[in-house]
């Protein structure tokens, strides 16, 4: 491969090829900021993120205004993930695919749809269809056999699609069924063809280290959810533990919540909105639009002979 991210033949690498190259590099740690819409994805891209994560919880809250309780459908998740993945197709997107949204046929359909949308990776879990956020109590799981069929269906769909996607197997068995059962499920998923393992809800660093060792050489993913059941491992600690990937699904909506709430309170109390930053700086529309490609759009229009935006 050339240093510019293209193959020796001049073809630009696909997002999934880039993600697989990251996973194959023993010195590369993949830190994925959680984004839930086009604006937060654009901000992450502007700041140089080399891999994104589309959070299912954030998608459910932003698109449906509802909590992450198995409400979002394949269409909800796919349309959001497709839009984010194609803002910059050179940057891989890993997207939540929940339970696959049904039996093996639906898990396969979900995988194929994600591949055709340009999504580089997805994770499938072993909760029942009426699932909930992995850091809430009372989760119910399907049998190991049914979970294995979801993973197998995803692998078969990948093989038949003519494309590729990184399949990440997630289990929520740790909290209700214990460590041994959770690891057994992940090993079954890897045997079916999953590329990486996602043990949800680890409780301690020691448990995390044990899981990474027990699942080696399969790359393991850590889910950083502040206030959830797991410790708040940062990138350096994840590396030390043995993880290869970390997702930070709450990154965007966690910081948006207090900022927007403060602005709403200001409007209600003083009748105007002041800056949430200490220096009092406000952001005008042109700067905000620029994050979402305004200058590139104007340049494209001019190159195509358009004149509508020359004075924008």
From TrEMBL:
What GO molecular functions are on record for this protein? methylisocitrate lyase activity
Alphabetically sorted, this entry's keywords are: Lyase
Under catalytic activity, the entry for this protein gives:
(2S,3R)-3-hydroxybutane-1,2,3-tricarboxylate = pyruvate + succinate
Task: Kindly give the CDD domains that the UniProt entry links to this protein.
Answer: ICL_PEPM
SUPFAM superfamilies, alphabetized: Phosphoenolpyruvate/pyruvate domain (SSF51621)
In terms of superkingdom, the source organism counts as: Eukaryota
Instruction: Please list which residues make up the signal peptide.
Output: none
Q: Which PANTHER family match?
A: PHOSPHOENOLPYRUVATE CARBOXYLASE, PHOSPHOENOLPYRUVATE CARBOXYLASE FAMILY PROTEIN
How is this protein named in the record?
Methylisocitrate lyase-like protein
Q: Which organism is it from?
A: Dothidotthia symphoricarpi CBS 119687
């Amino acid at each position: 491969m050339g240093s510019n991210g293209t193959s020796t033949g001049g073809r630009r690498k696909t997002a999934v090829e880039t993600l697989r190259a990251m996973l194959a590099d023993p010195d590369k740690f993949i830190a994925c900021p959680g984004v839930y819409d086009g604006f937060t994805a654009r901000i992450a891209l502007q700041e140089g993120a080399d891999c994104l994560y589309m959070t299912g919880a954030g998608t459910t809250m932003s698109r449906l205004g509802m909590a992450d309780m198995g409400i979002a459908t394949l269409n909800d998740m796919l349309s959001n993930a497709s839009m984010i993945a194609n803002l910059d197709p050179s940057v891989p997107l890993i997207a939540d695919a929940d339970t696959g949204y049904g039996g093996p046929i639906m898990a396969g359909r979900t995988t194929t749809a994600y591949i055709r949308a340009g999504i580089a990776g997805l994770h499938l879990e072993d909760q029942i269809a009426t699932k909930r956020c992995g850091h809430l109590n009372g989760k119910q799981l399907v049998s190991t056999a049914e979970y294995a069929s979801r993973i197998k269906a995803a692998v078969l769909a990948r093989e038949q699609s003519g494309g590729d996607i990184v399949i990440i197997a997630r289990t929520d068995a740790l909290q209700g069924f214990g460590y041994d059962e959770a690891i057994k499920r992940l090993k079954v998923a890897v045997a079916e063809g999953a590329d990486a393992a996602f043990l949800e809800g680890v409780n301690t660093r020691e448990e995390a280290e044990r899981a990474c060792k027990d699942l080696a050489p399969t790359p393991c993913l850590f889910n950083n959810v502040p206030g959830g059941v797991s410790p708040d491992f940062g990138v350096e600690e994840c590396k030390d533990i043995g993880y290869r990937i970390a997702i930070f699904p709450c990154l965007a909506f966690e910081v948006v919540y207090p900022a927007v709430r403060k602005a709403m309170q200001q409007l209600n109390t003083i009748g105007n909105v002041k800056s949430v930053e200490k220096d009092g700086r406000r952001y005008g529309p042109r700067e905000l639009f620029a994050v979402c490609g305004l200058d590139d759009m104007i340049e494209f229009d001019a190159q195509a002979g358009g004149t509508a935006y020359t004075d924008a």
